[in-house]
Amino acid sequence: MKIAARTNRTAGPVFRESEWPVLRNALLSYLDSSRAHAVHGMIEMDVTDALDAIRRIRKELRLAVSFHAFLLHSLVQSAMQHPSVVTYRRGNKLITFEDIDVLTPIEKRLPHGVRIPVAHIVRGAQQKSLAQINWELRTAVRAGDLAGEEAIRLRRKFARLPAFLRSLISWRVKRDPFLLKRLHGTVLLTNVQTHGLTNAAAVLGLTVHTLSLGAGTITDRVKLDERGVPVNRKILMLSGSADHDIVDGMMASRFIAQMTRLVESAAGLDDEFIAETRRLKCEEENGNIPAAVHA
What we know:
Blueprint: E1 5-8, E2 15-18, H1 24-32, E3 38-46, H2 48-61, H3 67-81, E4 87-90, E5 93-96, E6 102-109, E7 115-122, H4 130-142, H5 150-159, H6 163-175, H7 177-184, E8 187-191, E9 211-224, E10 230-243, H8 249-264, H9 271-285
Parallel strand pairs: 6-8, 8-9
Antiparallel strand pairs: 1-2, 3-10, 4-5, 6-7, 9-10
């Protein structure tokens, strides 16, 4: 997808013109399916201990450990205790999925250099350990040429459909939780963290899921410890959107309280994680782990 551009230098304002990226049509159709009764909120989480544990594990393993994978695992563990966040309405019935399929965008570079978001779905995440989730995302990010992958082909095909057909498909997906699960998973976790941005920032986005979470920036804050002594802590801004048709305020607060406890205690970043990651690395080196599949 080579983007041609030209600069206008005739009389009047100077501007640069380039082609509309057709692949953006898929994103627009996704956003058109957003839920009308969504409510939004933000919370701060102390991630100091989690970041310390990740640095320690990275040093011991000499491998990347994803903070995003840690958040995703905490989300899944909380959703298992509060299944309303993976519940959908189908007519006069409520459908609660046992599988927690987490849609999480990852950025990929195509062969010609263009960066695009790829919608990766961690399927059946409730059955996967933190080490397995971390390894899956690691494999997905490091995957090679995406030009021949099915997900990219389908996305391009959908993006090139006429607008009315894209709208019709999006309308159908919004009303069929089984089709939504197949195409977009059952819950969303995105990440808007940017290297070098140290100000507190979060995003309150639209959602086609019953629950969507967005990890914002991590900032330094001075807090009092249990002795009343000022200490520096790392604070994550986490935002969320929930379909109020399904999730009431008390349900949402219990879910987020559970996730906060897991995140702030660095749950899962332990010796078991280290041992399993070493095993996964060994299996990959022996060619026993299949490449991650984008969905």
